[in-house]
Amino acid sequence: MDEASAAMAPPGVAGTPSPGHAPSLQAASFQAGEIPDEIRAKVEDGTALLRQGRFAEAADLFGDAIAARPDWPMPYNNLAVALRGMGRLEEALLACAAALRHRPDYPEAFANLARILLAQNRYRDAALAAEEAAKLRPDHSAMHALRAMALFKDKAPAEALPVCRAALALDPAGTEVLAVQAQALDAVGRSAEALSAARRGAALDPSRRESLIVLGSLLVNRNHRDEALEVYRRAMELNPDDTVLAHLVHAIAGTTSAKAPEAYVANVFDSYADRFDEHLVKTLQYKAHEIVARTAVAALPAAFSADGGARILDIGCGTGLCGPILRPAASRLVGVDLSARMLDKARDRSLYDLLAQAELVQFMTGTDERFDAVVSADVLCYIGDLTEVFRAAAGVLAPGGLLAFTVERQEEPGYRLTPSGRYVHGLDHLRSSARGLFRARTIDNVILRTEASVPVHGYLCMFQRLPHAVH
């Protein structure tokens, strides 16, 4: 497979060079013609397996090729693709490094390195690797598109835009880069151009889900909900099992489900982690973490101070905004969250004795620990039916223990999924979920934050576990 053919292989994959195409390995320490046919065949077979998603089998074949010809860079690069497909990202980085050690001017290896770094959320490093790939293959639109994506994810949309233009000059029908361009234009406030780019990308390839999802999100942001719903439903037809997209469809259509999918919540907060604290507290004037944490600490019995503090569980701890308030009152402070990137931020605070990546109900039902207080700030708005949350909290709390949380408020009974993708709750649902498990100590009306200069109203709730709660 020559370099032109390799561009059509799975992302980052290079095939073996055919005789007469030795220039693609000019930096290698040998000529392509010296590669034995049986070793060349292993790499060709491995590349075919990659296309089928059979990463472990492909990795074995690339490993055999490397063992036979350890100075040949191509199997290292393709091994990196296989390892990335298996989620073994650190090993994939080592394989990429080996490919580049043997051939420092290997554009596909730099592109593959960029994709691995993107998967590790190392966006600036990914942008630098993609830049090297684009320098080596300036006529290859995919290299520029990869760099644009990395820059956009690194919160540099203005830098991404000229790179998008370079990619589109080479391939005006590049749907991947049009999706990046649309999001970058939206991020810099050029909303009309953003919507135009998104529409163009979706029209060029109606079977590309990512383009439809980008278009749908821009339409939602502009309150074009009917059209957004149509676009999201088209995307759903391409993958009916996509629970994240199904949640968005429910939210826009006004139908209610029991809870947001775990993948949806994790995706939202993984992408939000780097700017979460500043945006939430400064821009949205977020107050939920302060009011719920201070309320919980104030309600703790004085006896805990004499004993060195209370055992506190922070469910949906996020970046640890509640930590500075809870830590002085805690003998043990445990945080739980679905988002790995939010937990990384919480870990940087060095306030928690334990941080666990888990769904909150599963954590509470699975742990042997017992706590004196469970705290949840602006988290239960991603769960509609709170029955299991109350039951799990009752199981993890000591008798008399406190459950303090906020939810977004509605005057109507029950709970409802809103177009934001979050749920609002009525008082009756809170009381019925607590029945037989907790008594309500306080339920106060509060303002949780502002959105588009409009206050978001909620309930600040404090429940106390009954001594003989049956859960």
CA gyration radius, whole angstroms: 26 Å
Poorly predicted regions are 1-32
Main beta-sheet annotation: 9 strands, mixed
Overall mean confidence score, pLDDT: 88
Straight-line distance between termini: 63 Å
Quickly count the helices: 23
Provide the CATH superfamily of the largest domain: Vaccinia Virus protein VP39
The percent of residues in helical segments reads 40-55%
CATH class of the largest domain: Alpha Beta
The general outline is: globular
Number of strands: 9
Can you tell me the CATH architecture of the largest domain? Answer: 3-Layer(aba) Sandwich
Structural class: alpha/beta
What does this structure look like?
The protein has 23 helices and 9 strands. It is an alpha/beta fold and 471 residues long. The chain has 3 domains: 1-120, Tetratricopeptide repeat domain (Serine Threonine Protein Phosphatase 5, Tetratricopeptide repeat); 130-240, Serine Threonine Protein Phosphatase 5, Tetratricopeptide repeat (Alpha Horseshoe), CATH 1.25.40; 270-465, Rossmann fold, CATH 3.40.50.150. Helix 4 packs antiparallel against helix 5 and helix 10 packs parallel to helix 12. The radius of gyration is 26 Å and the shape is globular. The protein starts with a helix and ends in a 6-residue tail after the last strand. The model is unreliable at 1-32 (pLDDT under 50).
Give a quick summary of the entry:
The protein has 471 residues and is of the alpha/beta class.
